[in-house]
Design goal:
By secondary structure, the protein is mainly alpha-helical. The protein has two domains: 60 residues, no CATH class; 119 residues, NusB-like (N-utilizing Substance Protein B Homolog, Chain A, Orthogonal Bundle), CATH 1.10.940. Helix content is 55%, strand content 2%. The protein is built from seven helices and two strands. The chain has a two-stranded parallel sheet. The longest helix is centred in the first third of the chain and has 18 residues.
């Protein structure tokens, strides 16, 4: 649970930086103030990994251009700027962790991002986040490619931000659903 809380705070920091134009050091300081500077082991209180949170924030910001390019390459009919800011933050943190933290298994990173999308996003966010991250992980050879019969429900495409799967290309491309201009 230490890292889950660190991931949650990292997403909140990136959201504040992206939407509120909060300076990174200020966003991190706010997250630390919320959880406390120290990491005491108190009965019944979840401790957190401050250094992991800071690394996620700073690393994501350092790699943001390449991470955003990866996200853009998996969107069709959508722009990165049109995605919900919280979905952007979740994808950015998870992609940073997926691509630059070999100590964390890819499935753990994806599962954690999906859980955070359930907390912070809308009803469609978990499927959307899972679809994009799974596609990137398969592309990078971090997860095995799915056989067509294992692809699951629907048409094999990750759902778009509206929650609808709209397939018009390979299964790692998210397309804007009709009526969403």
């Amino acid at each position: 649970m230490r890292r889950r809380l660190a991931r949650q705070r990292a997403i909140q920091c990136l959201f504040a930086i992206d939407v509120g134009h909060t300076p990174p050091d200020e966003a991190i300081a706010t997250a630390v103030a919320l959880e406390g500077e120290e990491e005491p082991e108190r009965a019944g209180v979840e401790v957190w990994d401050r250094s992991f949170m800071e690394e996620l924030v700073r690393g994501t910001l350092t790699q943001r251009e390449s991470i955003d390019a990866i996200i853009r390459s998996h969107l069709r009919g959508w722009t990165l700027e049109r995605l919900a800011a919280v979905d952007r933050a979740i994808l950015r943190v998870a992609l940073y962790e997926l691509l630059y933290h070999e100590d964390v298994p890819p499935k753990v990173t994806i599962d954690e991002a999906v859980e955070l999308a359930k907390v912070f996003g809308d009803d469609a966010s978990p499927k959307f986040v899972n679809g994009v991250l799974s596609a990137v992980a398969r592309e990078q050879g971090l997860l095995p490619a799915e056989a067509p019969e294992q692809a699951g429900e629907g048409d094999g495409a990750p759902p778009g931000p509206s929650g609808q799967s709209s397939f018009a290309g390979p299964p790692d491309v998210v397309q804007q659903p009709e009526g969403m201009a």
